[in-house]
Specification:
335 residues, mainly alpha, ABC transporter involved in vitamin B12 uptake, BtuC, two-stranded antiparallel ribbon, 77% helix, 1% strand, disordered N terminus
């Protein structure tokens, strides 16, 4: 009796300890965002003004949407390298649906988002049913999506000049006379939906469970394969939404865009505290990570830092974030 109570008492603090460490990681990411923001505000007088802050939020939208879906995948211990080119393919499909096929705007947008879900579904089947490593499965999808975007569009941009309502989805404003873009509201709404799914639903609980211990989750009677397919499909839906938003922002579907976005999205997820080994992560942390990426990019551009050095600095930030994650894991295992 006393032995079982002792075990229970020793095991009880563990979840609370993990939650506390997660909050600390979130706080550190937020503190990092404030420090970076303050630094650029001091070194550049043009950084801290309404127009530039709005521009930062606007540039966070695409990376943020991709990162939201990727958060679910990485929490399961997986990875998705196809989100960048998948986004470009979804943008092209949006152009085909609305411009070439003449499908009404709401339905065309919905079909483009669902097409992203289809890409995610294929990734999920490859990972869960065919047992391909997520890195290989999504790397193959990255190449397939990149090729299909060029084939479907015939390597030519599809312009939405005759569909101003589509462009307004991103650069328009719900508030008359305001410069605050609708795209930021879309990201905020998507983040709320992602947060509810991750924290308040069975899908979210199983996402954490699979990432924490996939074997134990399967032994408890949960169909891990089916839930993995659902998680990758959900990530694909966010990819489809990102495709709609980037094509609306540019006013055209550019088939050659997309490469490199997957790295920035994954970086945002990791910087926000999601563990690459799975089982840990939050939507709030991911949004903070996406903001850090955007603030860095914007501040370095304002300081006229060459693009190649911007990549170097971003790479160092990613290395630091991964190192912190590894140090946190080692601390957790030794506790």
């Amino acid at each position: 009796m006393s032995t079982s109570m002792t075990k229970s008492e020793t095991a009880a603090p563990a979840p609370a300890l993990r939650a506390a460490r997660g909050r600390i990681q979130q706080f550190l990411a937020f503190a990092g965002l404030i420090i970076i923001f303050a630094f650029f505000s001091v070194v550049s007088p043009n950084f801290f003004n309404y127009g530039n802050v709005t521009n930062i939020l606007f540039s966070t939208v695409v990376i943020g949407l991709l990162a939201l879906g990727t958060t679910f995948v990485i929490i399961t211990g997986g990875i998705d390298l196809s989100i960048g080119t998948g986004m470009a393919l979804c943008a092209v499909m949006s152009g085909k649906f609305i411009v070439d096929f003449g499908i009404p705007l709401p339905l065309g947008v919905l079909l483009a988002i669902l097409f992203g879900g289809l890409l995610g579904l294929i990734n999920g089947v490859n990972v869960a049913v065919l047992r391909l490593p997520p890195f290989i499965a999504t790397l193959a999808m990255m190449l397939v999506a990149q090729g299909l975007a060029l084939v479907v569009s015939r390597s030519t941009p599809i312009y939405f000049s005759d569909h101003p309502a589509y462009i307004d989805l991103s650069i328009g404003s719900l508030v008359p006379g305001s410069n605050f873009p609708n795209a930021v509201l879309v990201l905020a709404f998507a983040a709320v939906v992602a947060g509810v799914l991750l924290n308040k639903t069975v899908l979210g609980r199983y996402t954490y469970s699979i990432g924490s211990n996939e074997e134990a989750t399967a032994l408890s009677g949960i169909d891990v394969g089916r839930w993995k397919i659902a998680i990758y499909t959900l990530a694909g839906l966010f990819t489809g939404l990102a495709g709609v938003m980037i094509s609306a922002r540019l006013g055209s579907a550019q088939p050659a865009t997309g490469m490199g976005y997957e790295l920035q999205a994954i970086a945002a997820v990791v910087i926000g505290g999601t563990s690459l080994s799975g089982g840990k992560g939050t939507i709030v942390g991911t949004v903070i990570g996406a903001l850090i990426i955007s603030v860095l990019n914007n501040g370095l551009q304002i300081m006229s830092i060459p693009q190649e050095w911007q990549n170097v600095i971003l790479g160092i930030v990613i290395l630091l974030a991964v190192y912190v994650d590894m140090a946190r894991r080692r601390a957790t295992t030794t506790t």
